[in-house]
């Protein structure tokens, strides 16, 4: 399909330092594409960033039929702009859409449009250390109908937002509360999909965790409330007695692209890694035995976010003395190095815009 | 707060028969009220029904922070307009909001605005047998931010839609599939809240059920996949060996207002009723023993929707020979009679507009 581009007449001011609050500044343009039952996905276009006009009965407002993605564009020292494994985001978008009964997109085609959008907004990719351009593709159901059934029309949009460094002033390990009451997801539910309802359902647990002095929540499985699943917007890894353990994809956790990349790296490096069920009791036992050597969350936002402390039912696990571990640091340096074009991209993970 | 009313200059044509498709026709006006962190809920207003304008980053599109309600206005034979226990809907709206970290509304105040809106749109309450005016209050998060955190601004809206009879040509018992793979809700999740994400997550199970010749889905609990929870948008009741059994409010099912009303009626009538856990195995055993006498869903849409057939893992339970049972019929007649002003409202359930 041919992409129509309408240039914005007025250009906004770009951030002038690395102090950019997350997800509040948007670039001059956005990508939009529509779906209708008889036309399929059509009318791909880049237009000025502008408000959306929707019927109050549009299904997105009532039954939550929506999916999204999150990835970043990075500026290299020699002023190229790189995306990190973006094809995996559109693959996952379609996986999420399938769960939510949303029609799939042509992954290659939409990736092509994304590249055109980022190309147009190239000057918005910040160059300050640790900054990047956050990319948010999302699909919403737009049919004006209160019938509880899949929508007959959708809108796919891509908006772009320059973001500051996740860690300002050096990597700081986080404190995380193991949630024992609220549930994020369960087998047969939507946990493996990146869909809106999975996030707001965690706000109460998040608020409780923060009140008690934590930064985030570690979710347990919804059935037994024993098996470790993931952190708010991150997958979780542990180094136990020299082996790296991460929860297997049970159907209720998100298949993180950072998680996949780390597993691939560790296997290349011949570090013992194990994707399996791991219970919070087992983790605590490992901690008591002095075998819990490192813990870190992984995701597009931070790449690696070391966990310095876990709080579980009044028990505290302090990990690696609240310091980032050697392996966490190596993974962080490797992946951010590849993303920034400072390390050899030997796996072909980056895509230049 | 004083309610501002802007009248629509153009009035739409009202439906001229009882053949009104559900949730596609909307009246001339809607109610809107805004929330901002420092102002609280403010600027209640009735305005012409018109499209909403929202930033593409508005949080409703990304993290699903939203709740809704559903109730009806009925026209009596002597041309009065009645609401059925509307205070319960605003009580439940606040319960849902609490789960989704949305600030509560003043229930009495919003009920007052709703009455003003219905008063203004009185001519839209259809008079054909079985028709009514469906009322959809909903709250959406509007802050333009991609941070995974509660929104600092919200919009509460109420839209109205004339709807046709749920059953056209007499009550018809439905066929329902007992879902064994997908999960709707789990303890600690959002199942007890009326929030968007709970509905689209059921579309796949719904499509599968319909493909296999059913009308709807019966959900089992998310933990053991054994205990009966509810139907798509209805609570469920069984008559087993003379006793009425309905699943207790486990935290993962919606507290239906029709359910509450039926329990109250049955207790007044001194019919034995039991709110408790009931497993699908137990139900099947009762069926095999010839003790499953009636089954019916309850909700605002149909009031009572008799279940004629349940399909569970290839086993079929035919209930009361695919006919509505005597008790189901009596409950239906009583509640619809009260709603339409044809029966004495001895419990004070209706509110005249
Ligand atoms: C629930 C959840 N888990 C994990 C992740 C990490 O995935 P990725 O590495 O693809 O960013 C994310 C986020 O982006 C997420 O939202
Ligand atoms: C999930 C669910 N269960 C039950 C009900 C029935 O509730 P009520 O009787 O208040 O309409 C509804 C609907 O409205 C619902 O959405």
UniProtKB/TrEMBL annotation, chains A, B:
The keyword Hydrolase does not apply. GO terms for biological process: isoleucine biosynthetic process; L-leucine biosynthetic process; L-valine biosynthetic process. Its EC number is 2.6.1.42. Pathway: Amino-acid biosynthesis; L-isoleucine biosynthesis; L-isoleucine from 2-oxobutanoate: step 4/4; Amino-acid biosynthesis; L-valine biosynthesis; L-valine from pyruvate: step 4/4; Amino-acid biosynthesis; L-leucine biosynthesis; L-leucine from 3-methyl-2-oxobutanoate: step 4/4. InterPro entries: Aminotrans_IV, Aminotrans_IV_CS, Aminotransferase-like, B_amino_transII, BCAT-like_C, BCAT-like_N, BCAT_family. Pfam families: Aminotran_4. One of its GO terms (molecular function) is branched-chain-amino-acid transaminase activity. SUPFAM superfamilies: D-aminoacid aminotransferase-like PLP-dependent enzymes. Its cofactor is pyridoxal 5'-phosphate. It catalyses: L-valine + 2-oxoglutarate = 3-methyl-2-oxobutanoate + L-glutamate; L-leucine + 2-oxoglutarate = 4-methyl-2-oxopentanoate + L-glutamate; L-isoleucine + 2-oxoglutarate = (S)-3-methyl-2-oxopentanoate + L-glutamate. CDD domains: BCAT_beta_family. It comes from the Bacteria. The modification N6-(pyridoxal phosphate)lysine is found at residue 194. The keyword NAD does not apply. Keywords: Amino-acid biosynthesis, Aminotransferase, Branched-chain amino acid biosynthesis, Pyridoxal phosphate, Transferase. Belongs to the class-IV pyridoxal-phosphate-dependent aminotransferase family. This is Branched-chain-amino-acid aminotransferase. It comes from Halobacillus litoralis. The lineage of its organism: Bacteria, Bacillati, Bacillota, Bacilli, Bacillales.
